[in-house]
Amino acid sequence: MLVLVCLAQFMVVLDATIVNVALPSIQSDLHFSAGNLAWVINSYTLLFGGFLLLGGRAADLFGRKRLFLIGIVVFSAASLLDGLARSQGELIVFRALQGLGAALVSPAALSIIMTTFPDGPERTRALGVWGGIAAGGAGFGLLLGGILTDAFSWPWIFYVNVPIGIATFVASLRLVPESKASQLVRGFDVGGALLVTGGLVSLVYAIVKASSDGWGSTSTLGFGALAIVLLVAFGFLERVHRAPLVRLGIFRIRSLTAANGVMVLAMGGMFAMFFFATIYAQEVLGYSPLKSGLAFLPFSFGIIAGSVGSQALIPRIGVRGSMLAGLVLAAIGLVLMTRTTYDGGYVAQLLPAVVVMSVGMGLLFVPLTLLGTTNVEGNDAGLASGLFNTSQQIGGALGLAVLSTFAASHTKSVLGGLGHPATHTDALVAQVDGYHLAFWIGAVFLAVGAAAILLLVRPRDVASIDPQAAMVPVG
To answer: Which of 15, 88, 178, 343 is deepest in the core (most CB within 10 A)?
Structure first.
């Protein structure tokens, strides 16, 4: 069962990065403009981030195994349609459908682990496997994308999901247990579902538009305001509804709220490395898609090693200590990224930073997932999983939008201060300087996350997963 749900999550995470390598080929074959090409990524992100919370709560109400299987079918079918797409509109629509499938799979998969493995060593080991396999998919996606695109063609980055999805579906029918909230559901909160999904979709869209149109644009401000209105209305509705979609009292669980806040910061910092470093490898160092994928393969190994290492650290230094170690190490990795130069080398500059960053993120993910899912009743397992996954997506999208804005602005400022027309070397130096600023800001995000753990997470908040913490006096 654990292998199956991890395999499904691996497929979802893999798809978030495998497409990046194939974007130039997709642009050439389907004649995308530079602006429209971004929607191959954005349409997936939009529905994935927007429907995660609804998908998680629906898993609680209608059955976690049922939603998991439905999500696999939707995701696999959409992957097949992506590969068969022969126009820009078709690919964008099918990618959105794929994002919807992912929004059903991810929270259902995590909630299945939560309800199968109790708090303690068993869940720690299970989430160690989950964190290593699932998070490792991000780095492996770059390599697989380069191999499939170079050896075959870009549709194969989508076709590869189909046999995996079929095998996972068939095996899950027999091996994955069914569970759902034990309390009687007197009615489905349709209004709450519409408001929270509309609010999250609007929020993700505003963040996405900020990357291209700017933070002060009409579209960014308009959709941002719409998101606030819808989410505030959702909060009021949930307070008075007899059977709310989201029980607002769940946010009084200190461990859950802290974990989601730290996840937003951590993903914002992680995307600084993943996005800018991959562009650096291809546009500055001149790597091919395949060579770029190979260059970041150590990231997958590092994050797996960190996830395995976290299981040994948690009994020794506790959940809070493991998270702090991971955040500090990841921040050091981002600082090492600022050593890159326009004419630099992979082994001396890029590789050390990738290894340190990846091990740090691996050390963080397992205890952070434990923190976000502990102290949660079984009836709210899907809701907690949906919240945690939503924080991950919102954090990544928001971090990327903020950091890319600062990086582009700094690059423009450097070029504007030259006093002469920029040469090719000048442009590369300015581009790398912009990346450096993004890496520094990402490191600050991680440092703020570490401070939040120190200030907000008390020993008794992690007592169920870190029993010795309950014996530490609070001062």
So the answer is: 15
